[in-house]
Write a structure and sequence with these properties.
It contains 14 helices and no strands. By secondary structure, it is an all-alpha fold. The chain has one domain. α3 packs across α11 and α7 runs antiparallel to α14. The longest helix is centred in the last third of the chain and has 30 residues.
Amino acid sequence: MASSPSNIRANLGAATAGEVVDRTNSVAGIYSVSLGLFLFAIQDVIIRYLSDTHSVLQIVFTRSVSALLILLTVILFLGGKNTLKVHRLWPLFVKGSLGFFSYLLYYMAITGLPLADAATITFIAPILVTAMSAILFAEQVGWRRWCAVLLGFVAMTLVVGPKGHFGNLEVVFALGAAFTYAISTISTRYIDSRDSALTAAFYSILAFLFWSMVCSVVVLLFFQSNQEARPSVAFLLREWHHPSHLDQWLMVLLGFVASSGFYLLVRAYMVAEFSAVAPFEYLYIVWGATFGFLIWNEIPSWTTIAGVTLLVSSNLYILKREVVLKKRNAFRRPKIPHR
């Protein structure tokens, strides 16, 4: 599961105070975001492959340890141990916790849904951010963007409705992933502006590690593994066991893939304008559909294609309105009172 455009932008907002970045290289930004999303799609393929024999909590734990070691090495190399200091820890922990449950639900969803459908459903997260920002924080959202929000929900209905997926537990998981991801995106605004995005990522992964251990203990004490349960539920309740050499290396590889993917997406928004890069986020759905077809022979239906088209259109329209409003506000000058 990749980071949504609004989430990446929010992460960049948590960059170190006073940092000045030249965002003029659109081509480099597009290449970075495309490769980053390709890596996240590879991550989905690996996790779906491992879901038949391993626990999702074991996979997330191993991936978190691997990613944590990689990020720690990069942080110490670039800025030293002082980079690990934070000004407000609780927003980072809350964001990481929400991110953990969002990814957990998404991983459970892809065990029973085509990759293209799961990616499309979770990509309503940016639309949820727009709606929740208006409801929770009284941000002004014009009628045009409200129409785009409504169109996004119509798109999601097109993807799951005609196929009778509304009653599927995996659809509920995908919607839960989108909802928790949207809250995670909104929670980023509480991160202290003096904390860097790299530091925020480090503590978010620490939260992943913490919750994977807590949930594993809860499952061990209060639930029994049931291989006859739905694949998504069995994926959660399955007992940990020693993986084969191939599976073990794949789990470790997930940490490298996740760390590299996150870096490439953040880097894309650092070197290029947000409006130039954000539309290419939707390559994630294309990659998912491509791998689903090549590996599992999943052919997107016309309703999925129509839903993706509507969803991308509504998200891009919201993005366009944000850019227009940002430029309009930038040109407004405060009135100077007469003396």
